[in-house]
Amino acid sequence: MPIHDDRMLDFVSNSATQTKRLGVRLGELLQPGDLMCLEGDLGAGKTCLARGISRGWGASRSATSPTFTLVNEYRRTSDSLPLFHVDCYRLRGPRDALEIGLDDVLDQPGVVMIEWPERIADILPSERLWITLRWSATTKRGFYLAASGQRYQELLADFRRSAFGG
Amino acid sequence: MIRILGIETSCDETAAAVVADGCTILSNVVASQIELHAQYGGVFPELASRAHIETIYPVIQEAMKTAHLGWDDLDAIAVTRGPGLAGSLLVGVNTAKGLALGRGMPLLGINHLEAHFYSIWLTEAADKFKFPLLGLIVSGGHTELVLMVDHGEYQHLGRTVDDAAGEAFDKVGRLLGLSYPGGPAVQKAALEGDPAAFRFPRAWLGDSSDFSFSGLKTAVLRQVRKLDEEEQVMPVADLAASFQAAVVDVLAAKTARAAAEFDATAVVLVGGVSANLALRESVRAQVDRPVHAPPVSLCTDNGAMIAACGYWRFQAGQRDGWDMDVLPGLELA
């Protein structure tokens, strides 16, 4: 696994199960206010990773695709804090995002995961963890994590230790 | 005779209906927002709420007028409180509260998924059904396999772990350049196609009654990309037919297996995707007991099923208070 620096990490997941497990590791480390951007084509594994993250966060029910409703909310069992799972697949730009009240979601005391974030990049906070997923073979997926801001560099370092022990 | 007004605004249909004794439809009015959302290729929540606000009163007035009833002729008001889009649900629930409070009528908050079961009581005599009934609820937002043990009593057997069946139809329809909503468009394209032309994966998930359509969607995407790269003419009909067959195979087989395992007296096939003829045929062919699939006007979202469900809850003496709130994430059992 090549390690670039504190702000970047890339690795390959060999199966959906592994992707989900890595998501759990990441979800366990999240704090209220954290923002995860999940970029990748249809079928790249965004929802699979999101399911792991929400489980790691402690959500009481399993995350499913948010495409139909655009925003799904999952409360964790321990303290009822929300995790918002947002899908921008059908949005045409930042204006649409404001129309569906995304600015309200970002202001809430919870974790936010956004699929297809590149469609609304202009209105997203500059500090975040940006995860790019790439399809490489039937079950293999490439992951590229980029941290912007102090909090996310710490999160990335914690995740590296938790997932890879490095 | 008990007459109940049913109001439904959980997603993109503004609907109201009056039903007598939980089985006779006196009126059933639905204002669809499909055209409004078509430009986005899917339901847009904020727009949906606004459209509900504009349409809800005319729709209710039309339902009352068609039923030839005055407000004093109603016994209760039933309204969907979840699951669904929060803003859309609020329009229906607040309207129902206002009407019920103003007219001094009982208020009943209804689970949309439960109400889907009650559409069959609108098509056949009530004494025809014996429990347990197995329900396959398939739509844009739901893919659920539920056992109805008795009125108001449910056992959840399975659901999708990723995309809903209707959502898979929408996404594949979009990939194939078909119109929104994807369900009817893919079904139409599939008519001319060979369901065996492409061997798309079926996610059986072992013995589980859960469903997964994400891998299938990805397989269709890879196939489309490959054909694109080879600069071939896109065989849209074959792709649509092969995709549809993969969805239908899994839905029908899991339904048949659950019906036998739980010894259901019959299978109830409801939700928007249940309008798909290939699905109806396949479920009928594989399930070794009666299959009840209501007409399209009753298997898609409507107020009549809400009123019918409300009737049974009304008769059981259940009432909801003025503090009743919407429950966007409501589940069944």
Mean pLDDT of chain A: 89
Strand order of the largest sheet of chain B: 3-2-1-4-5
Principal-axes geometry of chain A comes out as globular
Q: What separation lies between the terminal Cα atoms of chain A?
A: 10 Å
Oligomerization category of the chains in this entry: heterodimer
**CATH fold-level label of chain A:** Rossmann fold
Which percent range fits the helix content of chain A? 25-40%
Task: Name the CATH homologous superfamily of chain A.
Answer: P-loop containing nucleotide triphosphate hydrolases
Helicity range of the residues of chain B? 40-55%
CATH classification class of chain A: Alpha Beta
Strand percentage of chain B lies at 15-25%
CATH class category name of the largest domain in chain B: Alpha Beta
- DSSP E strands of chain A, number: 7
**Helix count from the secondary structure assignment of chain B:** 11
Rough outline of chain B: globular
- Ranges of chain A where pLDDT stays below 50 over 5 or more residues in a row are none
Any idea what the CATH architecture of chain A is? 3-Layer(aba) Sandwich
Structural commentary:
The complex is a heterodimer of chains A (166) and B (333). Chain A has 166 residues and is of the alpha/beta class. Chain A has one domain: Rossmann fold, CATH 3.40.50.300. Chain A has helices spanning 16-28, 46-57, 94-99, 102-107, 150-164; strands at 8-13, 35-39, 71-75, 82-87, 111-115, 128-135, 141-148. The longest helix of chain A has 15 residues, at 150-164. The mean pLDDT of chain A is 89. Chain B is globular and about 65 Å long. The mean pLDDT of chain B is 94. The longest helix of chain B is centred in the last third of the chain and has 26 residues, at 236-261. Chain B has helices at 34-38, 45-66, 86-103, 112-118, 165-175, 182-190, 214-229, 236-261, 277-286, 296-299, 303-315; strands spanning 3-8, 13-20, 24-32, 76-82, 107-111, 133-138, 143-150, 153-159, 266-270, 291-292. In chain B, a hairpin with a 3-residue loop joins strand 2 (13-20) and strand 3 (24-32). Chain B contains eleven helices and ten strands. The chains are: A alpha/beta (166), B alpha/beta (333). Chains A and B meet through helix 2 of A and helix 2, helix 5 and helix 7 of B.
